[in-house]
């Protein structure tokens, strides 16, 4: 017999999300709405158990309102007979005595918060014994924590929860608070399924065609890089087998786009292209590239696109160093012409790509100032 789990992690509820500027408050509400959507999905799909593999909260001390929202959601799951098993992560850690898990109770939750697994927790689910392995990592007390996840004796289904870093992952450097592991390490634990957290993009790890572990990823994009659809996993787990299904749950989509501004002779045409890419729930970072004749007025362009995106960040990566305008201005008998000539001389003497890029940016800045009424 198989057991159906809904696996999520890295919800980061209560995060300040200041990187989204004026949208930060709405983004915090997005995260709570996505949590509610996960609860509703667990009920709709009639899962047996919700697994949360760390960082339910963004800190060890989230605000009481956020905690109350979680308690209400867990109460609904408990009322439907859906079990909840969770581990603390790196953000909502239990290192501090006044952490959220010691100050509040959470309905229906089995919390795996010891420094190592002394013995797995056994729950009876639809007549099947299910053994849960998990721990709250403490760098000073969890030396053997990974090995403590190794399967013990006992019939039924054996499931682990682990918040850590697959070695070789290019997205971060390992820190003291991270738990590094390899695919061979996970395979050696002998579990039927490992619910992973910490890595914010969805990925399943297979050995000889069998899924042994998955990262569910963050269900809502916390920063750029967590782009596109965000997921939870609905996982059917039996003895020695697991089948995972991705389900989209995000409230809004983050996306990074690149637009070649040199293809548009007029600012209005560039504006039309950016408007074509927009939709009201899109949080976008757009890289503007290409060789242009005049510096882009990003503030003006962003203002003209107001309301077409949920939030928009424009990055000017254009180049006007070799433009005909610069060549014309360089010949002027003026302070502006002198400056451009000096920049070109500095560029030719530059011994690093960083110095050459500074020259390009200086040129763009000064010409933009002159072009917008800065004087000559």
From TrEMBL:
<dbReference type="InterPro" id="IPR029052">
    <property type="entry name" value="Metallo-depent_PP-like"/>
</dbReference>
<keyword id="KW-0378">Hydrolase</keyword>
<dbReference type="InterPro" id="IPR050535">
    <property type="entry name" value="DNA_Repair-Maintenance_Comp"/>
</dbReference>
<dbReference type="InterPro" id="IPR041796">
    <property type="entry name" value="Mre11_N"/>
</dbReference>
<dbReference type="Pfam" id="PF00149">
    <property type="entry name" value="Metallophos"/>
</dbReference>
<protein>
    <submittedName>
        <fullName>Nuclease SbcCD subunit D</fullName>
    </submittedName>
</protein>
<dbReference type="InterPro" id="IPR004843">
    <property type="entry name" value="Calcineurin-like_PHP"/>
</dbReference>
<feature type="domain" description="Calcineurin-like phosphoesterase">
    <location>
        <begin position="3"/>
        <end position="200"/>
    </location>
</feature>
